[in-house]
User: Fold this.
Amino acid sequence: MLNKRGEGSKYLSVWWFLVLIFIGVAVFAGAWMYFGVGVNVKSLESFALKENLVDCLLNDDGFLNLNLSLYVFDNKEFNIFNECDLSESMFSLGSPFYFEVGIYGEDGKELKPALKGGDYSYASDCVVSLSEKITARHYPVCADSSYNFLYTKDGGVFVGKITILTASDQDGGVKDDSEE
Amino acid sequence: MGETSENDNPIWPTVIFIVLNLLFISLLFVGITKFTSGAAAYEEAYAKKIALLIDSARPGMTIELNFKKPLEVCRSNHCGEGGALVIRDGEVIVTLGSSKGYAFKFFKDYEFSDEDIIKNGDVWSIKIKDVK
Assistant:
């Protein structure tokens, strides 16, 4: 025979409510950890930045953009931010972005020093992340590609190489009222 | 067999136990649903989506967005629809009911004014101006 009152108090004891509270807290903590991480779009951003640079620096006919060509071969001034509609302030100190464009001749020698913008420290981070395939929350995600281009020199046509490395480490977040 | 009151019936503690457990599970389900589909999640998703669209857009383009769901979230949180989407100083700021909204930067050198965000019912458009 069961002790009916004893059975009831067993079910409705304070311990059972403590168990329920513990389960509830654990479920909410798990949900917070999972959904609180947010959507990581760093790889999409670094890819978009790379595509932007490719579109503006290389022509469809395989030659360099005219202004870039004048800069490389005729030492004319070249502002990559104006040329590619990039926000110069967004690539200033402490920027969440980085890009590096290297331009090489057919002999593999650099035709001009690399064009750079953003947080330069990401260059070394990218070496690690691209070779080791590291994915960490507070680590930049990088994209790199190289493309051949044609150029003329002393009456001959040569094939050069342009390398583009981009990185993004933007997490985004709550609007900062102090900036207003 | 003697008379038994309702309290002496062995079924009641079990019923109460089941009802309380169902109540707990329901509250947990409602709480989790509210937590995962709240304003903050939509603010982040739309701010990032719009910033990426702007980064990939070219001058002269118009970006059309289906803003139905964010507007529903905004209305349920009694927020001002006029301030739901603000683009300024290289940032997309989406505010759908959380206290401060969510901000995400874009790297293109485009400038926006209030007139560049065209609100046509649930479809909102963003005009990318020619910068040069």
